[in-house]
Amino acid sequence: MMMVYWNGRIVPAEQACVSVMDRGFLFGDGVFETVRLTGGRPFLWKEHWARWQAGASFLGIQIPVSEESLRAGILALVEANQIEEGVLRLTLSRGPGPRGYSPRGAGPPTLVMTVHPIPPGAEARATWRVCTSRVRLAGADPLSRFKTCNRLLQVLARAEADAAGLDEAILLDSHGCVIEGSSCNVFWVKSDRLVTPGPEQGALPGVTRGWVMAEARARGWEVVEATAPAEEVWEADGVFVTLSTRGIVEVTEWDGRPLRRWPGVAELWGLYEKALQAVQRAEAW
User: Fold this and answer.
1) What is the pTM of this model?
2) Cβ partners under 8 Å of residue 100, min gap 6
3) Residue 282 within any structural domain of the chain
């Protein structure tokens, strides 16, 4: 039986009911985070907590518990489900409110957490085949900096990949430049530089993305936040994506085109594994 954290209580999933007037259900009026669990502890927790806080603040939603209380809830949830290697999802909505778009009078916020087994294959280095989505993203969208509960463009893009039997779909902007995947950030290697679209280009500032950028710079690799047309990325020396549920995934095929493979991906994956192991050994998180 799956147990969930629902407004401060650990209850069976079947008992965790959300009001039909909840604005998260009606409008996607909320924010969420997806966090890798390793050894029963969240990986890169501080970074996820900071982004979640920032998103809630941007939307004007008050997180109803302290970080200390939330940490205790996560540990209790992990224990209740007996899942130590998996995925934690935190979802915060503005809560129920009157009819209409105005958030006036809404609340209290709804806070739900769930844990799930790690996706198949996520514990080992993987390669993905991807397609270019027909969906286009708007540039300079302030909401793109946060994981809001309205992710319909990403849902449509991922549906394209599913229909084609592929692992992921890559979204472009209106100029045909690469922005991100439906659930990941994109990196490519060009002239010994790591290039990845950033918030200024309309990409989500992913937590695993930030970890990779920091590790790369610590090793003297040049990292640039920029974008480029898909046709240019296809000619790169290597392409990979980052996401919390799987870490680092090399892209070997894009729209049926085989891509070059960059040996640095293996090095980054090794560093990622060591970082996970450090969390497992640490006394605090």
Assistant:
1) 0.96
2) none
3) no
Question: Tell me, what amino acid is at 107?
Answer: G
> 189 with 211: CB under 8 angstroms?
no
Question: For the chain, what is the domain count?
Answer: 2
The whole domain housing 65 covers: 3-117
Closest to 73 measured CA to CA, from 56, 93, 49:
49
Q: How far is CA 195 from the centre of its chain?
A: 19
Which CATH number covers residue 14? 3.30.470.10
22-72 tens-digit pLDDT: 999 999 999 999 999 999 999 999 999 999 999 999 999 999 999 999 999
Torsion, Cα 261 133 155 196, to 10 degrees, reads 50
The answer to whether 109 and 95 have CB atoms below 8 angstroms apart is yes
Element (H, E) at 59: helix 45-59
Here the contacts of 76-82 (C-beta below 8 Å, separation 24 or greater) are 76/5, 76/10, 77/3, 77/4, 77/5, 77/10, 77/113, 77/114, 77/115, 78/37, 78/40, 78/115, 79/40, 80/3, 80/10, 81/2, 81/3, 81/115
Angle at CA 44, nearest 5°, toward 117 and 269? Answer: 75
Whether the per-residue pLDDT at 123 is higher than 80: the answer is no
Q: What span, in angstroms and rounded, lies between the C-alpha atoms of 238 and 222? A: 15
